[in-house]
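Private note to self, pasted from the team thread so I don't lose it. Backbone tokens:
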């Protein structure tokens, strides 16, 4: 049998290559390639192991004709186009906990370095200045630390900061009151955090909700003399506005490990008073790199050699025996969970999964796990089958799995319902043949569609002329429609349109779709 071939394209602890070889894979290590070089060679490989320097674009994935798995030795997968990988049947895995402690420690190091201006004092002392009177620091004891994001890393930062006798407050819409008490933080809204924090640290993924969360407007609401640390993702802070506030003295110090554009070769922040930065070193300790290298190589080898799946972001975990039977049901479940997560708004506290027909006779746990993995991705990029049920519990999400003995019109049916402020909202799907997931109902409207790649969901008034208008709008922006599905409750009422397109729809085009005559709602979806 030919050995699976793996490419390690970023600098990674040598334990990764050792494990791949021991587990029967062939390994090449080629770091520092340009996107063109990667595209030229990726066709040879079954597995791609990366850190943050390799960006896996749809073009790379399209060229990766043999690729089965991408393994991220780390947490953030924003450098991988997951919809493109899923569409090509490529599993994307990460190592969700391997570098959390290390990154939290980096944030704490940044807090201490800012409080005492250690980098600048060091540089000037070594330059022979002995500038004792130039530096007056602040104690962190008794100060308020405001966490934006209180997941794995935020919680570890909270624990360390409490050890430093700081008072910790947190803004995280998905942190439950119970969990806040468990980790000893006061849950607050963003305005309160901005007004009260002496130090602010960010620990969220970069999503549509968190992008620019420290915007010019929000930075202006911070307490005078605040110190800000970002060891999460570039793009969370308006860097130009931060530079101005450092220059004016409103912000007393800022420390960034991550930048909107990396590598950051220039920035308005460089040279500002009390600005400290590191080149995305948050995960760079021997311990974390050994952890994530071992874990990613083990997970990828499991998949390539034995078919086992763990910590996958776009596929449910599976044991070898159950795999063939459950796999199509879990794919359907994950898509329905993701659909509900993308469409339903507000703080959702209840989700129910109903199974009838063939699905009622199967092990419900992996199916529930798959629904939750899809659904919880609205909160965190690092959710997968393993941690989704745990995260759901931590966030106080009530989950129910109901089996119906009744026979319906489909040989198998899964229904996912969430309780929203406007009442219950549910979507349902079945399998066509034995393994093709299909949506059959969305929020009470019968509609048949494969949930794949980039899609657009529209609710509009059911009136003549609308299909022409939406087709023209997309055509004008060179957006090719792949599939087109319509549904409605009654003629002349409210109609639902679900279409698939060949590329993501830009935000500006969504805005124009919302403004079309008769449109009540237009939401882009990705699977
Ligand atoms: N600098 C580095 O080298 C480095 C290393 C590891 C992780 N990271 C990054 O750190 C970030 C956090 O990692 P983690 O493991 O703690 O992730 P996590 O998923 O455990 O926690 C993220 C938290 O952010 C919260 N969140 C989501 N949307 C939010 C919003 N709109 N407002 C406030 N909070 C929101 C979530 O509820 C969750 O609690 C990720 O972006 C990860 O990529 C950076
Ligand atoms: O690999 C790295 O050095 C950074 C990893 C970090 O950004 C992550 O999200 O895990």
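Design output:
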């Amino acid at each position: 049998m030919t050995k699976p071939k793996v490419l390690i394209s970023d600098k990674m602890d040598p334990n990764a290559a050792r494990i791949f070889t021991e587990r029967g894979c062939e390994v090449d290590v080629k770091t520092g390639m340009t996107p063109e070089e990667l595209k030229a060679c990726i066709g040879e490989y079954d597995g791609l192991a990366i850190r943050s320097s390799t960006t896996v674009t749809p073009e790379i994935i399209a060229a990766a004709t043999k690729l089965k798995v991408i393994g991220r030795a780390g947490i953030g997968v924003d450098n991988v186009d997951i919809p493109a990988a899923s569409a090509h049947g490529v599993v994307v895995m990460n190592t969700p906990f391997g570098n959390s402690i290390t990154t939290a420690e980096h944030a704490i190091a940044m807090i201490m370095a800012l409080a005492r201006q250690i980098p600048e004092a060091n540089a000037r002392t070594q330059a022979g200045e002995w500038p004792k009177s130039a530096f007056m620091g602040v104690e962190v004891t008794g100060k308020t630390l405001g966490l934006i994001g209180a997941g794995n890393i935020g919680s570890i930062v909270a624990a360390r900061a409490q050890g430093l006798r700081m008072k910790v407050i947190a803004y995280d819409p998905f942190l439950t009151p119970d969990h806040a008490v468990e980790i000893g933080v006061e849950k607050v809204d963003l305005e309160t955090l901005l007004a009260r924090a002496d130090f602010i640290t960010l620990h969220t993924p970069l999503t549509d909700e968190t992008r620019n969360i420290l915007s010019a407007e929000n930075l202006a609401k911070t307490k005078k003399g605040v110190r800000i640390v970002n060891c999460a993702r570039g793009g969370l802070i308006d860097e130009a506005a931060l530079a101005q506030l450092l220059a004016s003295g409103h912000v007393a110090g800022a420390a960034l490990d991550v930048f909107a554009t990396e590598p950051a070769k220039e920035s308005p922040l460089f040279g500002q008073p009390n600005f400290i930065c590191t080149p995305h070193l948050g995960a760079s300790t021997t311990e974390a790199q050994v952890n994530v290298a071992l874990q990613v190589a083990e997970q990828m080898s499991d998949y390539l050699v034995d078919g086992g799946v763990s910590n996958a972001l776009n596929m449910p975990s599976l044991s070898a025996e159950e795999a063939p039977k459950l796999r199509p049901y879990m794919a359907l479940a994950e898509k329905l969970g993701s659909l509900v997560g993308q469409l339903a708004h507000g703080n959702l506290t209840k989700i129910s999964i109903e199974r009838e027909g063939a699905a009622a006779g199967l092990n419900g746990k992996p199916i529930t796990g798959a629904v939750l993995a899809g659904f919880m991705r609205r909160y965190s990029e690092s959710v997968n089958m393993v941690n989704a049920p745990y995260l759901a519990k931590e966030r106080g999400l009530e989950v129910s799995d109901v089996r119906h003995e009744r026979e319906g019109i489909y040989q198998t049916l899964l229904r996912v319902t969430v309780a929203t402020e406007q009442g219950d909202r549910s979507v349902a799907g079945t399998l066509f043949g034995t393994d093709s997931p299909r949506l059959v109902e969305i929020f009470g409207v019968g509609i048949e569609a494969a949930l794949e790649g980039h899609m657009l969901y529209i609710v509009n008034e059911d009136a003549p002329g609308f299909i022409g208008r939406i087709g023209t709008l997309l055509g004008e922006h060179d957006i090719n429609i792949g599939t087109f599905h319509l549904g409605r409750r009654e003629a002349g009422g409210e109609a639902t349109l679900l279409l698939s397109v060949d590329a993501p729809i830009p935000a500006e085009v969504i805005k124009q779709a919302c403004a079309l005559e008769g449109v009540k709602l237009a939401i882009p979806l990705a699977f």
